[in-house]
Amino acid sequence: MKRFPVALISCAVVVSAATLTLPRIASSQDRKNCLHLTSVHKDFDCVEALFSETPYHLTFSGLPPGNGMALGGELESTAHDVSPFTFHPDPVLRPKKKEASEENTTDVEDPKPPAAAENGNAPATKSTGGYKSVDHLYLVGTGTINSSWAATGGFDWLPPLHYQYPDTPSTAPGAAPACHKLSSIPWICTQTVFATHLSAAHRSIQTLSFYGLGAGSPATKYTYQLNETSGGVSARMPLFDWLAVSGGIEDRQPELPVLAGSTTVNVNFTEATAPGISAQPNFLHSQVGISSVAYIRPRNPSGDPDYNKTTPPLMKSHFLYGFNNEASYHWYSDRDSGHYSFGQFEFDGDESLQFGSVIEEFISGSRRKEFHGFKSFRYDLLAASCGIANRTGGAFKVTDVCTFGRVDINSHLVLSRVSQNHVIPFYLQPTVGGADFDSRVSLRGYPDYRFRGGDAAFLQFNYSLPVWGPIEALTFYDAGTAGPSASQLSLNQYRQDAGVGANIRFAGAVVAQSWLAMGAGHGIQFGYSFSKLF
Q1: Residue 457 lies in a domain
Q2: Res. 268: pLDDT tops 90
Q3: Were both Cys, which of 157, 333, 456, 518 would link to 284 (CB 3.0–4.6 Å)?
Q4: Contact 191, 93 (CB under 8 A)
């Protein structure tokens, strides 16, 4: 009988929910907007509410590609996050403040939450500090028409550590952003706090693709099924606002059902050509990691206090630089025979540059009729870029921020370490091509899971431009490969593709993507992917 800790399974009470998510990332809208769809703005508000409003909402995520579009729902007690660098709404994790009388030393909760600061974080109030705790419970269920399904449960907990708070609200002119100062470690004063995450899940996947191992594998697709139950706990500790360390441990129990058919992995491969096909042990998976997330936004370049200024220049440039990198090391311990134990180093990077400008000249909506021909087209294009196309009156206002696109350079590297006489199961090896098991997009000109090996690498260049509400136009270039060792990741082994597509972005994060790409030997490849959000 396969081993799996009963305690971890019970943590999941995993899902009787039939709800669905596009994530906890978007700021929740009101589903009442769906009753009065009188404008494009309300249409988008309605869609965003259906996929983000608590306590229940819809989701398309949670299942690997190749199984059709997933549909399901999420039930959660509250949505929260304390990081200014994520796209989740922040929790009301604010300090208590004193009563009006200095003689009364009893701390009381502020009866009304403070207004959010510009960076999305609740400003601090005068406080002596104290113990605070936030928790978040969620249950998710998704399924597809090919009978694949997943059930996931999780519990996020910000334990009651003793934090101190600055006396100056972050909204005060020239004041530094509010932070949580850990009294036991005085030099830690961050906007994020120590957090733990407990989760358990079961997934039954009916169709996964396998083309063999290495960059030279033929383009013949074989299929297999995977059932997997997992559960574990992880923690994240910020050292600075831009640097955090993390760690976790989980138990994973995979199972490959034996299939009959001329195109199945069972029939066409052996243990030598597809390690792990003959036995699937229970794995104890542990990891440690370090992540760095930083955004650099120059101060608003508009220095003119006259909001009705009508003299040129019309705009000044306004950029946002982003650096999001994570390195981690993973240990997979085979708890049955030890034959399938291995280690793995993983790196993920996303360096971004958002192009924009700030309006410096007021243009009233009544002047719209003065523009004709190319000037009219330029006005409409600029209005869309500045997010004012649906504004009543259609005026350009001083300090309006306009967006002209975003460049992202994404990188991914996996290096595995295997002891003598040990092997890595093929179903745990990283893949490059289309989207992988965790919905990570790589070589979009190739089918999902096209190249597989113990080591893998890819590099992407993306340019996206908002065109209508949350929809963005996308152009891209990809390069990547996979092989049995790092020596097989040389540039002459890299496959390349390029193409165009579209993103759906909510509150700063891409939640869905579709594309048309061309890769050598595969012609035009159409694909889509939904972000894995839990």
Answers
A1: no
A2: yes
A3: 333
A4: no
